[in-house]
Amino acid sequence: DTGVSQDPRHKITKRGQNVTFRCDPISEHNRLYWYRQTLGQGPEFLTYFQNEAQLEKSRLLSDRFSAERPKGSFSTLEIQRTEQGDSAMYLCASNRDYQPQHFGDGTRLSIL
Amino acid sequence: DQQVKQNSPSLSVQEGRISILNCDYTNSMFDYFLWYKKYPAEGPTFLISISSIKDKNEDGRFTVFLNKSAKHLSLHIVPSQPGDSAVYFCAATGGINAGNMLTFGGGTRLMVKP
Description:
The structure holds two protein chains of two kinds. By secondary structure, chain A is mainly beta. Chain A has no helices and eleven strands. Chain A has strands at residues 5-7, 10-13, 19-24, 31-37, 44-50, 53-57, 65-68, 75-79, 88-95, 102-103, 107-111. In chain A, a hairpin with a 2-residue loop joins strand 5 and strand 6. By secondary structure, chain B is an all-beta fold. Helix content of chain B is 0%, strand content 55%. In chain B, the strands form two sheets. In chain B, strands 2, 4, 5, 9, 10 and 11 form a six-stranded mixed sheet that branches. Chains A and B meet through strand 4, strand 5 and strand 10 of A and strand 5 and strand 10 of B.
C-alpha cells in the first residue's frame, strides 16, 4: 500500500524566491488537502480538492499561494515571493469521501 | 479563536498504566472527531475516530469518549507502551465543512516511561 508521497522533504530557499512542492496522493483517493504546520501547533487547513476541482481555500492562503491538481491526480503547491513567515511544514493529505484523511510526511520549508 | 483545544502540552505516564489525553471544542457544528499520532519527521497517522451519534469507540488499546454536552472528548490508551510516545492531535470536522477540512488542536506530547 503506497501512502501519500511528498517531494521534496526539505526545501531551503532565500526570501523572495518562488518554491513549488508536489504531493502524490493514494491512488484511489479523490480528495486531496494541503495543511501548514508551524512549531508547537497543530496542522492548519490551507486548501482542498475534489478530483481536479479546488473547492475550498482558507484565508491563510494569500495571493502568493497557488495550488493545482491537474487531471485529479498529483497536486502542486506554489509559493511566490517567499517571506520569513512562510517557514513551516507543509502537509498533504488524501482520502475517499468521508474516510479519515491520510497524511504524507510533509515538506519542511526554511526561508533564509 | 481556537475551535479545538488540547490544554495539556505534555503528559508523562509509566509503561502499563493508562494514558488519558483530553480535547475540548467550541464549534457545535462539529460532528466527527479524530485522533492522530505523530512521530518526529513523519506526518500524522490516523488512530481512531468517533461520530457524534456515539459516545464511545474502541479499537484495541485505544478508546475515544465523546461528551457532546460538555464539548469534550478524550483518548484512553490502556496499557500504555513506550512505542506510544508521540505527539497526539485531536481533530474535528462537521457542518458545512463536513468531509473536507479538519480543525486540529495544538497537540499533546505523550511520554511513556519504561
